[in-house]
Design a protein that fits this description.
The complex is a heterodimer of chains A (220) and B (280). Chain A has a domain of 99 residues. Chain A is built from six helices and no strands. In chain A, helix 1 crosses helix 2 and helix 3 crosses helix 4. Chain A is extended. Chain B has 280 residues and is of the alpha/beta class. Chain B contains ten helices and six strands, in the order αααβαβαβαβαβαβαα. In chain B, helix 4 links the parallel strand 1 and strand 2. The two termini of chain B are 23 Å apart. The relative contact order of chain B is 0.17. Classes of the chains: A mainly alpha (220), B alpha/beta (280).
């Protein structure tokens, strides 16, 4: 019974949100507010139950006093609510920024920049793994590497602003724009696919989980 | 009003209605669609397939209900493959909204294979911190996950007794609706050389291909098309394969509207030019 009620509430809220496609209305606003409220409550509960309890409260109960230090730093963040004490929150923020930046710089170099640079240092002809079209099978095409090399260099030239984009630099930058546009097109195409997938998911839910059982309950 | 003017000013609600129809009809009438398996999805399948029985595999669920239609089918398919191969599944996540969903998915698939909690799979849940959590897991998983989602101490779970850090893990399969996959690659692969496969929403997929090209990840399952390919690879057709028909028809409709919109725009511009040159 609980599951049926859940499905009806879910279907109702989905239809209320979809009603915005026609025009803005109170049903849409209601479901939007419900979503924001439930999400905030959910995150609060989750942070308390799955982080503060096991990582702060339980260790304190077991006399692991070292957790007091991050606990106090966390509490200091709450001083931002009051203008007179807001300066105190700069201390934990500075610790977060310092640790975060230190980690990010090292890991961006080690895990992103250098491996990505290495992957563009290729022989002029040869196949690359990035072309992934199962229909026309460009996977092992000998021009793949050349396209990657030309694309990388011309795109970098496009973002080189210390010299005016005229003559050779200008022509190279124009080729770079073509590669950038192709990348935007691919991203847009994938985004369309993602949004349609989500719509299919919701419509699939409305039909298979809501309407079909309702129809069966009337006919049987 | 001329035909081109009409076509370039179609009411958006008409477009929504047509889009809804091309999605609903294939679902209701179960119109089949052919699914081409991409090499990226096959690489992901092979990476899991190569693992010997008993190898631990981490499933990282970094998504929310909004991205579930894309990521759930691929996660279900990979879990089926993992349980079929008798791999030890460790579920965890960096998005608090993902864990309740992945718990439902995990329990559903575990039931299909009569898998036993604590022996064949565990659910460690959510911890905030992302990169820091990944670094700590590289040293000792217990330093961040001392208890599971049911409140059991990790040491009390039989399959976790011999699992301490990434060196005991065969593969990390992360399911991404945001940038957490980048963090997995930069922190876990960059620092510890962890083998990673990614399942991503279609929005995230183009940003993930460079990792595949640089051999930083072992495979990539992109969007619903990737999920459908994975279902085909494990020979277990399910929701993604059924829904690909709607996806294909919706894409065709969108392409038709893009063509109509552009042709209408150019025809109207041409007519405007002709009208202006006629009045001069």
């Amino acid at each position: 019974m609980g599951q049926i009620i859940g499905i009806w509430i879910s279907a109702g809220l989905t239809l209320m949100i979809f009603s915005f496609l026609y025009k803005d209305n109170p049903f849409y606003k209601f479901s939007e507010h419900v979503y924001v409220g439930v999400s905030a409550a959910y995150i609060t509960f989750y942070t308390w139950d799955y982080f503060l309890m096991p990582k702060l409260v339980h260790p304190l109960v077991q006399h692991h006093w070292l957790v007091i230090i991050p606990g106090v730093f966390g509490a200091m963040m709450l001083t931002r609510w009051f203008s007179k004490t807001a300066w105190i929150s700069r201390w934990p923020i500075s610790v977060s920024v310092g640790v975060g930046s230190g980690l990010a710089v090292v890991q961006s170099m080690q895990g992103f920049l250098i491996p990505q640079l290495k992957s563009t240092l290729l022989p002029l002809t040869g196949s690359s793994v990035v072309f992934n079209n199962p229909i026309i099978n460009l996977w092992n095409h000998p021009l793949n590497n050349l396209i990657i090399i030309v694309g990388t260099i011309t795109t970098i030239v496009y973002f080189y602003f210390s010299k005016e984009h005229k003559g050779f630099i200008g022509r190279t930058a124009k080729i770079g724009i073509i590669f950038i546009m192709v990348a935007f097109g691919a991203s847009f195409g994938y985004t369309v696919m993602a949004r349609i997938s989500l719509l299919i998911g919701r419509i699939g839910f409305l039909i298979n989980d809501w309407l079909v059982p309702v129809f069966h309950s009337f006919t049987h | 009003m001329k035909i081109w003017e009409r076509l370039s000013k179609i009411d958006r609600r008409v477009i929504y209605l047509l889009l809804a129809l091309v999605i609903i009809i294939p679902i209701v009438f179960k119109i089949p669609s052919t699914v081409a398996v991409s090499k990226a999805a096959r690489m992901a399948y092979d990476a899991v397939d190569k693992l010997p029985a008993g190898t631990p595999i981490i499933f990282s669920t970094d998504f929310d209900p909004a991205s579930m239609p894309e990521l759930k089918p691929m996660m279900v398919a990979m879990l089926r493959q993992a349980f079929e191969k008798k791999l030890k599944v460790i579920m965890m996540g960096h998005w608090p909204t993902g864990i309740p969903l992945s718990t439902l998915i995990l329990e559903q698939v575990a039931k299909e294979f009569n898998a036993e909690y604590g022996v064949d799979y565990v659910n460690l849940g959510y911890r905030p911190g992302a990169g820091l959590v990944m670094i700590q897991m590289g040293k000792e998983i217990r330093s961040v996950y001392d208890i599971d989602t049911k409140g059991n101490p990790v040491d009390s779970l039989p399959m976790m007794k011999s699992i301490h850090n990434y060196s005991d893990i065969g593969l990390v399969a992360c399911f991404e609706a945001g940038s957490m996959g980048d963090i997995w690659v930069q922190y876990a692969w960059g620092r510890f050389g962890v083998k990673i496969i990614m399942g991503t929403t279609a929005v995230v997929t183009p940003d993930s291909y460079p990792y595949l090209a640089a051999h930083q990840i072992e495979g990539l399952i992109g969007g619903m098309a990737g999920a459908a390919a994975y279902e085909k690879l494990i020979s277990h057709p399910d929701k993604a394969m059924i829904r690909m028909s709607s996806q294909a028809w919706a894409h065709i409709l969108i392409i038709v509207f893009i063509i109509i919109g552009n042709v209408g725009y150019f025809m109207m511009r041409r007519m405007e030019k002709t009208r202006k040159s006629g009045t001069m």
